[in-house]
Specification:
The chain is mainly α and about 190 residues long. The protein is built from five helices and two strands; from the N terminus they run ββααααα.
Amino acid sequence: MGNRLTQIATRTGDDGTTGLGDGTRVAKDHLRVQAMGDVDELNSLLGLLLCEPLPDALRVLLVAVQHELFNLGGELSIPGYTLLKDEAVAALDDALAEHNAALPRLKEFILPAGTRSASIAHLGRTVARRAERAVVALANAEPGAVRSAPRQYLNRLSDLLFVLARVLNRANLDGLGGDDVYWRSPRLETPD
């Protein structure tokens, strides 16, 4: 693994470059740096979600996800290095199956709304999708440089965050939710 930070203000990035975990320097707008930044943003957003009232099981799950996202970011920062294990993707599949089973079938598209915690989970879902797009762009630009597990993990995580938003609306821990907020389309509405 690369060097641990001993100071934050190094000023080495003043020229528009940043160091990767293997010591190489790349432009700050490099696709790898974009992917790393999107994963970091997602992890930070989950940290915000963890500040909300949450069921204990979801809190444990989200903390584990934060650790895996840190692994994913580390893997992206060190080309050719593997930190995110395939078991992490399988764990998300298990969590998806468990939480989806307890939810009613969707009747229509839902809005990213409801309780504050559900809305933060929806925001996390959109950032996960952006991070996934960044990882895909990096993989397309550098064939063979990105394993499939990071892409799969972000894909599953965005799905899981959608499901967790629905779970959190039903948990109604802040008293402002209780159910999904369905999209009302004039085209789909039936006359009285």
